[in-house]
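Hi C.,

You asked whether I'd gotten around to modeling the 219-residue construct. I have! Everything is below, sequence then structure, no commentary in between.
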Amino acid sequence: MNRFVIVIQIVLLSWVACLGHAQDTKQEHTYVDLKLPSGTLWATCNIGANNPWEIGNHFLWGETVPIEEKDSSGYLWGQKGNYIKYGEVDNKMILDKEDDAASVLWGGKWRMPTNEELEELKKHCFCLTVRNYKRSGVGGQIFISKRNGKKIFLPVDGLFGNYWTASLCQDCQSDCVHYHHFVSKIHFERGEARTYPVQFTCRFREVRCLIRPVMSKDK
């Protein structure tokens, strides 16, 4: 075999290897199609996790760097009652793409879910609380689609599972004057393997929460 043929083979093998790597990168983050009316596709893992039962990273709302990796400069968008972005200061109620951790860290069409998408998840899925998901030792909430039986699992962190949405709360009742400064999240309590009501509540932006990305289905 002459040198020219050997060189061509090496180039082809390298090209195939690069193609395979590109495909792996493209499929790095997987999703489940629960056949929801909006077509929203839910990721199988949290940001910072490699498996559905792993907690992943914590974030303050509207920040794209995990809280464990941040410096001690405080919350990016100011202090409670004196925020410099989102809410009544600019009438923005949904995170911009550049402040959406899922969009920034995962890229592509990934983003954080809106409050409406969480309500849709709750409405069109059966919710089951489990203590030991697939013998991982981790508890959490399984959402089982009423439409096709497929499911996603959202793990709890300790006793609770708190997940950010991209939406500010517009109708929260609290002592805080700027009630729209609260952010919707999912709140899970660990319990026995049984149906458990999913609670949607609110928290100040500076609270550490997890993120489960979504993407819109191509039409």
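If it helps when you're writing up: Helices lie at 3-26, 101-106, 115-123.

Thanks,
B.
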